[in-house]
Amino acid sequence: MIDITYSAEVEAARAEGKPIVALESTIITHGMPYPQNVEVAAQVEADIRAAGAVPATMAVIKGTLHVGLEADTLQSLGQAEGVAKISRADFAACMASGGTGATTVAATMIAARLAGISVFATGGIGGVHKGAETSFDISADLLELAQTAVTVVAAGAKAILDVPKTLEVLETQGVPVIAYGQDSFPAFWSATSDLSAPLRMDSAADIARAHFLRGALELPGGQLVANPIPAEEQIPAEDLAPIIAQAQSEADAQGVTGKDVTPFLLQRIFELTEGRSLEANIALVRNNARLAAEIAKELARL
Ligand code: PSU
Ligand code: MN
Q: If you take atom 16 of ligand 1, which residue's CA is the nearest one?
């Protein structure tokens, strides 16, 4: 038997067939500093409730998979030291050893699927890192999208990644990449990029129907919905380019590898932008949560 526990709210939503939106926890433990991380996590949950759905933040706490975190658990996770960052490869091992781990996009998709939750909101997904032709650093998130039937709402891919290569891998893996309401593939802190998204949809209902039809077609994977940051919140790409380059060269010089790369870059960019990157990050996560709630409500009607 798998050790799994549902928050009271998620338990009730499951019993009543209410729309549920999954949320990851690596963004809390490895993506933002305390105390903003906990404030943002609570705010995003509130946004989902205000939109008429129920939030289910995922984490492994002392070997138990939590689907939905009670407020005090969220508080302590947000301050805890040494929390593991778990993806597909280490999910079971973390549970087996009674460990505590935050779920990445890949691990959150696995947990959501297990709990029968079809929609998940986050900030940015992992992808193909710059220099991947020598480092082979390609996030397990991309392969998870190819095999786990969860629709993930993100603000596109960060400019810390090689975005063209990320889109190529998603195409090879048969993952639908859907820009919401525009043709351009959004670039996380910027609403647009000079790349076109492979697909475009203008309503949550269409995205929900496409999710449903992929299941009906017996296609195993999920969908990536790329939702642009609200224009008034964006940071111009040219402001960020030198900062990203600096963070990347520091990572290379310090020999940062594996799962430490993304948290290292996010932390350095936060410091180098004096917190401006975090403000934009908060705005886009909230925006993604609202769209995910709409998609979940549409799915519940199908
Ligand atoms: N990108 C962000 N913010 C994040 C992450 C990615 O803009 O917090 C986190 C997510 O949890 C994602 C993980 O699943 O980093 C990817 O890590 P890696 O690149 O090591 O696969
Ligand atoms: Mn990686």
A: 126
Ligand 1 closest atom vs CA 102: 11
The single residue of 85, 130, 158, 297 carrying the catalytic annotation is: 158
Cα–Cα distances (Å) from 136 to 12, 142, 165, 233, 258, in that order, read 43, 13, 12, 33, 10
Q: Which of these is catalytic: 24, 144, 294, 298?
A: 24
Q: Which residue has the tokens 């969860």?
A: 150
108-116: average pLDDT: 98
Look up residue 116 and give its two tokens.
């029968």
Ligand nearest to the CA of 125: 1
- CA 200 – CA 181 distance, rounded (Å): 7
pTM of the full structure? 0.96
Taking Cα atoms as reference points, which of 28, 24, 32, 29 lies closest to residue 278? 32
Beta-ladder partners of 60: 65, 101
Ligand closest to 87 (CA) is 1
Mean pLDDT of 146-151: 98
Atom of ligand 1 nearest to the CA of 258: 20
How is the chain split among helix, strand and coil, in percent rounded to 5?
50, 15, 35
Active site residue 158: yes
Give tens-digit pLDDT for 171-217.
999 999 999 999 999 999 999 999 999 999 999 999 999 999 999 99
Measure the CA–CA gap between 201 and 181, rounded to whole angstroms. 6
